[in-house]
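Structure tokens please, single chain.
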Amino acid sequence: MNPAYATGLPAVIRGEEAFLAARRAKRMQALLGGAILLVCLVAAAWVSEARPATLWAGLPRIGEYFARILPDLRWASLFANAETEGSIAFWMYRLPEWTALILETANMAALATLMGSVFALAFAFPAARNITPSGFVYQATRRLLEALRTVPEIVYALIFVWAFGIGPLAGILAIALHSAGANGKLFAEAIENADLRPWEAVRAAGGSWVQGCRYAILPQVLPNILSYVLLRFEVNIRSASVIGFVGAGGVGEELYKVISFNYYEEISAIVLLIILTVSCVDLLSERLRHAAIGRLEAAR
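Here you go.
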């Protein structure tokens, strides 16, 4: 017997009944929400043709492809020269050329990140709701940043390849535009979370809107902005490796070529170099981020 009913007190019994009713209602809401979510997932899978039978039939082919791109390395000749089959040197026989392309890719990502971040910083202040000069400016800058990040880099790259021709310039501009939209949103949100007391003090002392942004807001949000810029650089390394598929420069062009001609061992070699590059950039940027943020925090 429920202890609440054992007391025989009407107030206790009414409280217990209200608690049980609320718990039943909460469970019903959870079940209803789960059922709606399941229906939505099934509908999305049906619309996108993500059927289990298709997935199950294609899985072995994925394994077969990965088996084909694995290099034929042999322990007996693993460290032999580039003329010997089964050696690492034979597998990586075009390493100098691929290294140059990866450096070009990293250079594209760095330049595009810098250009996009400068543009994003300029538009983040008017796009921040708490310090924007007017509602119209806020809406205009927000919609502009949305438009920039909505279009994928590869679409921008196709447009710029058509306009400027094949080469790294198209890739740099494509990544820079998308980075401006993505970073602009993050920068604006960091500004909206800033303490406004320094801003009010600068404005009360007669400082202009620009001076308020420079001396009251920027010092507060600079560590977050730096963190976002370094994170975007990591993302852009990967993006720069992909947009080369449409002729926008970097190692992506070479990767597209070897995939098209089914040069299986070269595919794995280039993919391995890209993974190593991204890992190195990730480790380096993490150290830089912690070091820079620590210095900025100590200086505040």
